[in-house]
Each structure stands twice: as structure tokens, then as C-alpha cells.
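Dear colleagues,

For the upcoming journal club I promised to circulate an example of a predicted protein-ligand complex. I picked one with adenosine-5'-triphosphate because it came up in last month's discussion. The inputs are reproduced below in full, followed by the predicted structure.
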Amino acid sequence: MKEDTKNNKIVSLDELASKVETFKNNKQVVIQSHGVFDLIHPGIIQHLESAKNQGNVLIVTIIKDKDVKKGPNRPIFPEKLRAENIAALTIVDFVCVVDDEKPFDSVNQINPDFLARGQAYKEQDRHLYKEIYEEQQELFFGKTNILETPGISFDESEIKKNFTENYPDDTKIFLESFSKKYNFKKIADSLNKLKDMNVLVIGDGIIDEYHYCEPLGKSGKTNLIVFKYQAHETFVGGAIAIANHVAGICNKVELVTLLGKKNPKDDLIKENIKPNIIGTFFYRDDGPTIVKKRYLHQYLNQKVFEVNFINDQPINNSFEKEIISSLSSIVPKYDLVLVSDFGHGFITPNIFAAIKKHSKFLSVNTQTNGANSGYNLITKYNGADFVCLDEGEVRLAAQEKYQNIETVAKNIRENLNINNFIVTLGKKGSLGVTHKNTVNHTPIFSTRVLDTIGAGDAYFSYTAPCTSSGLPLDLVSFIGNAAGAIAVQIMGNKRAVEKYEVLELISELIH
Ligand SMILES: Nc1ncnc2c1ncn2[C@@H]1O[C@H](COP(=O)(O)OP(=O)(O)OP(=O)(O)O)[C@@H](O)[C@H]1O
Ligand SMILES: [Mg+2]
């Protein structure tokens, strides 16, 4: 439909009333449907189609935003968009945005042949609200004939409920009680306030390459499957990806990272960091900018093989001194520091001591990966304000393979003097332990997983600013899992998790 045709259908109440009068004089049967029309679902289309089938002209009145009484955060879409949505439907002849302070007032003013009401109202009629419905009719549409349309029997609030219907019972119970404690507005306000925070991200710079291949068959000469190259993608990873996540929630971010003089790839990095990030790059002489090249089975999305281009020896003493001297002037400028340590030789004990000495609020993640194979443990760090690790990293640090994770987490928190501690548990969500040893368990909110790589980084990036702004750890954990749910639907670090996505998801979770 052409834009102008769609907009020509949207008319004022006076225009509509006079049009309806003309139609009726010409023996045309006019049907009116009246409602919010926030989410267009099959039930609505069926209702409008069957309404139109019983007359000649179908008009739709859309309730103004101010008069929508569907509970918090509704309508989702403003009246203008709701009207345009309905006007785009060919079966609808005219649309009008109306006051509904006195419900159904527009029906009396327009005086159609029929007011069409959908199944949701019929359900209401049959069950609990029979009397209210009769009262409504008497009060509001007087003598107007009612036409009941068949169709799928649910209204929009049902869809909102259906969204969480797929979750396991534990998650539903969690959301039920969480919604009683925190409302959407409070969470959105808390996240929006973070934009004024100045944040420094320090850590190893990594380039992630994904090479998608198709298996051909086994080599005749060795025990090897031969693959055919199909395509590849390159993303910025490590601390660079963390800075991009944080830059979506905080306006001012600086990234201090270590690259290599051999094959620096800094142009690629500059192109792929958000414009509100100041990039401060140090280059080691004795190695390249780290590249992690992964080969994947294209259709299964399974990683088959990974090659790291890396020198992960600790940086030399004079370079270390140079970096420490810069950090001692950079770190004090920031409200919050995120150390994202991938264990590739950048964050030496002396560098960490310098960061700790100057930072107002220190948060740390020590990543375990193939290259550091268990040597990069949180036990190097003492006295951080916030630490976020995955379960494997915590168990390695504690040298506890089987003990209950809650006990392990509490011990690590105490031994390392961590103020707030979160352990991410992959598809089991996360476990938070406060400085008072209060524990929260938070489930996952995503049932669709594309790639979990980088989910922990997104979790850390969202939770560190939240914790440093003083939010309670159960709320922090909730926001972290919402960010994690978005991250698992993104391939690697292809792009950052954006605040609006997290808020959108949260608005669906909390009712
Ligand atoms: N399989 C999954 N299904 C749903 N959500 C997941 C899954 N894996 C991770 N998540 C979400 O992402 C968060 C962080 O994931 P995880 O514990 O795997 O971090 P991680 O091991 O540090 O990841 P990485 O280091 O690759 O970034 C979890 O708390 C959860 O919210
Ligand atoms: Mg991780």
C-alpha cells in the first residue's frame, strides 16, 4: 500500500461521523471496531475480516495513549503508529484515533450499524464479567447493535503472558516474585542513569576470526577430515568487545589495550569500536595483535579447530613501567574500571597493583581459555569491588571440582576479599554472593541459542556498571542474565548487546 493511501484513511472523528452518515444514507452497512490495537496478532486480523464480511464499510477507532488502561508499560506503540498499522490493512476503510475517557463514547458519536466485538469480549461475557459487560453495554453503547466475530480467542495481554509461557516452571515462579519486587520503570531508570558514568576498560585486545567450512571427507593418507572453505567473518573481541558493550550503556568509555607491532590490525579495531570510546593502544615489539582463528562446520555451527596467533609471555620490564606510568594518570579519571584479563601477558602483577591503587571501583574478570589453560586465575587479584567469573573459572581457582558451587563461591569471595561476586553458570543462569554472603540464583531468559561465546563478557559488561552504581545484586544478576540472553543469540562478538534490546526483553519478562 502506498504511504499516502494509508494516511488518507486516518481521519478525524467529525469527518468520520459525517462519512458514516453518508454511507448509511446510501444503504451501506457500516461496522465499527473499537480498541487499543497495540499488537496485531491473528486473532485481530480474523476479527476484522469477519467484521468486514458482514457489512460494506469497516471503520476502526483506536483508543488514545492516555486512555489505554491495560496496565504498566502499555501501550507499547504510540497511537500514531497503532493507527498507521491498522490503516495499512486493505480490509479497513477508515481509522480514527479517539478519546476513550468515557469508554465507547466514539461509538455513540459515530453511530454505526454494528459494533463488532471479538472473542476476547465473548470470553469475558461468558465467564467472570457477565454483569460488568451488561452494564458496559447499557452505559456505553446504548442501542448500537453488537456483532460478535469468531476468531482465535485471546487478547493482547494473553500474548504477553504467552511470551513467558515457554519457560520452565522455576523461571515462571522466579519472574512472578521478581516482578513483585522490581517494576520495569525502576529497572529502566536504573539502567538509564548509568549513562553518566565514566568507565575505563583495561585488558587484552583480541581479533576473533570465524572461518566457515564444509566437510568434504576423510583424507586417504592420514586420519584427518578435509574441509572446504566457504566464508569467513572477523570481529573485535577480548577487552575491545567489552568496551563496545559498555559504550552502549555509558556515554564515556576509554579502552586501554595491548596490541602487537607485528600485524597490529589497529585500523580494523578503530573502525570497529563505538564512537564514544577513546582507544589507548600499547604495542608490544615481540608479538602480533592476538588473532584467534576458528574453523567451523558451516551448517552445524560447530567449532572444529582453533589457531591462536599470539605471544602470551608477560611483557618486558621497561614496557611494563611505561604502561604503569600511563595508567597512574588515566585510572583516577574514571568512576569505574573493568579489568578484562584474558591471561595473554598484559596484566602483570605490577600492572594490576597500579590499577588497584588508583581505581575508585574495581571490577575484574579473569578468563580461562585454551591459550592460558588454567594459569589465569582470580587468585592473582585481591580486594576487587566486583568479580564476575564462570563456574569453571571459580572451580579452578578454588581447586574444587565437585563441591557445591555456592560453598565454593562463598569461600573464594571471602578469601579474596571480593565485595560482590557473581558466578555465571551457562544455561543454569547465575549465582550472586554479596559481601554479607546473601545469595541469589537467577535463571536464564533465552531459549534460543546461536553461540554462547562472548555471553559471559556481555554479562560482565552490563553487571559491572550496575554493581558500581549501587544496585542490589539480585537486580544486577537479573540484568546480567537479560544481557546474556541477547548475547547467546549473537554469533561470537559480531556486535554489542544494546541497551534497548535488554530493556525490551526485560519489559516482556516483568509484568
Ligand atoms: N546455553 C545457554 N542458554 C541460555 N543462556 C545462556 C547459555 N549460556 C550462557 N547463557 C547466558 O549467558 C551468561 C554467561 O554465560 P557463561 O556462564 O557461559 O559465561 P562464560 O563461560 O564466561 O562465557 P564466555 O567466556 O564465552 O563469554 C549466563 O549467565 C546466561 O545468562
Ligand atoms: Mg567468560
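Two points we might discuss: The first strand starts at residue 30 and ends at 35. Residues 121-132 have pLDDT under 50 and may be disordered.

See you all on Thursday,
B. R.
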